Amino acid sequence: MIMDLGHIGRVALGLAIGALGGALFNALGTPLPWMIGPIVFSGLATFFGLPVAGTRVGRIAGMLVLGTALGLYFTPEAAGMVLSHLPVIIAASATTLLVGAAASFLLARTARIDHATAFFCSVPGGVAEMSMIGERFGGQPLPIAVTQLLRVVCVTIVIPSTLTLLGAGGNSDNVHGLLPSSGPGLAATLTFSLAFSALLARFKFRNAWLLGPMAAGCILGLSEANLSSIPPWLSATGQVLVGAQIGSQFRRSLLASMQRFIPAALLNLAVLMAGCASVGLLVAHLTGISPANMILATSPGGVTEMCITAKVLHLDVPIIVAFHLVRIFLVILSSPYVFQLLRAVGIFPAMPVDAPSRVPAE
Predict the structure, then answer these.
(1) What pLDDT, in 10s, does the model give residues 233-290?
(2) Please, are residues 137 and 357 in contact by the beta-carbon 8 Å criterion?
(3) Between the CA atoms of 355, 359, 360 and 362, what dihedral angle is there, to the nearest 10 degrees?
(4) Which of 139, 152, 240, 324 could bond 303 through an S-S bridge, CB–CB 3.0 to 4.6 Å?
(5) CATH number at residue 186
(6) What is the mean pLDDT of the chain?
């Protein structure tokens, strides 16, 4: 019980520090303040050794709120718009995977790591998923996890800030944004989302607590149930829960053990972001979709963070949600086969069984 109370205290301190960061960033008028503020403040607190901790339960609760809110944007009109762009969405998502594969060559050379580790560091997938898949193919899970985490944090900070500074907002709105917030309707909405996500988790559905709330929101949006919107204060709370948990993973000991690897990972990330932005601009040119929408849709960031950015900047949330969801499925499902293909044709050399990869020692 003492250990449990101690952990609860560390979680509470982390959330308090994260909320303080969100409030400060909000007062300063920074983009996405309730997400970026907690990431920065919680990350700094963790790095400097304050007794803070993240919580998986808190992240799930935050994802439940945010995923449901994003899914509610899928009205029948929005779904029709997504279907009309489906070939472009699939093609752009596949190109993003290829950009990550190409960037892995630079990471392998600059960080002096094996190609398996470099590949799964570079393709924009989930932190846990890429670590597990990469380890299965002989990669090192630690640098993969760190690089994927750095990707989410850096993209969340850089892309919204850049788009805001460039004045790249839109004027997109829909029924969900105009719905009033209703107590009973909100309770019914979140209860349905929780039950649907728990059912997916019960049947071992991959990323149930990420995709489940979005799917539940989509069902409500497509059916035009119009129960309730997600109020701003609850959306901000969800962002604090997710952001504080992300920041709490930046432990000093973890970063100190990889001082020579992290600069190479940041260079790799810059190449990945530039490549994905180029893909977005090309798709915008070919389709007539606005550049801001396409840069956000093809960015290698987390689906929740990028879609919240779209909501804040009044961009086309359904299109951006669709791009990122397709990318997640494509990367998780196809990255092992892409890696095996590249290894089979000799682009990635096979690793000796008795020579495991490792990050260069200090």
Answers:
(1) 998 999 899 888 878 877 777 667 677 788 999 999 999 999 999 999 999 998 888 8
(2) no
(3) -130
(4) 324
(5) 1.20.1530
(6) 82
Cα-based angle 84, 90, 94 (whole degrees, multiple of 5): 160
Strand segments, DSSP code E, in the chain are: none
| Total domains present in the chain | 1
**pLDDT surpasses 60 at 86:** yes
DSSP 105: H
Specify if 354 maps to a domain: no
What's the pLDDT score for residue 352?
46
List the domain range (segments joined by +) for residue 72.
2-344
Confidence (pTM): 0.68
Collapsing DSSP states into helix, strand and coil, what is residue 231? coil
Q: Which of 49, 37, 17, 21 is nearest to 255 (CA)?
A: 49
Q: Would you tell me how many other CB atoms lie within 10 Å of the CB of residue 8?
A: 12
Query: For residue 352, is it within any domain?
Result: no
The verdict on residue 358 lying in a domain is: no
| 274 contacts 100 by C-beta, under 8 angstroms | no
What CA–CA distances, in Å, run from 298 to 224, 251, 322? 28, 29, 11
The answer, yes or no, to whether residue 3 has pLDDT greater than 60, is no
pLDDT-above-70 percentage for the chain: 89
* Placement of tokens 């069984």 in the chain: 353
pLDDT in tens, 101-147: 999 999 999 988 888 999 999 998 766 678 778 888 888 877 887 78
Per-residue pLDDT of 48-76, as tens digits, reads: 888 888 888 888 899 899 888 878 877 78
Q: Token match 């029709």: residue? A: 80
Instruction: Judge contact between 289 and 279, C-beta under 8 A.
Output: no
- Characterize 38-57 residue by residue with b for buried, 16 or more Cβ atoms within 10 angstroms of its Cβ, and e for exposed: bbbbbbebbbeeeebbbbee
- Is residue 151 included in any domain, yes or no? yes
CB contact at 8 A, 138 and 351: yes
- Helix or strand (DSSP H, E) at 121: helix 115-122
Tokens of 187: 């309770």
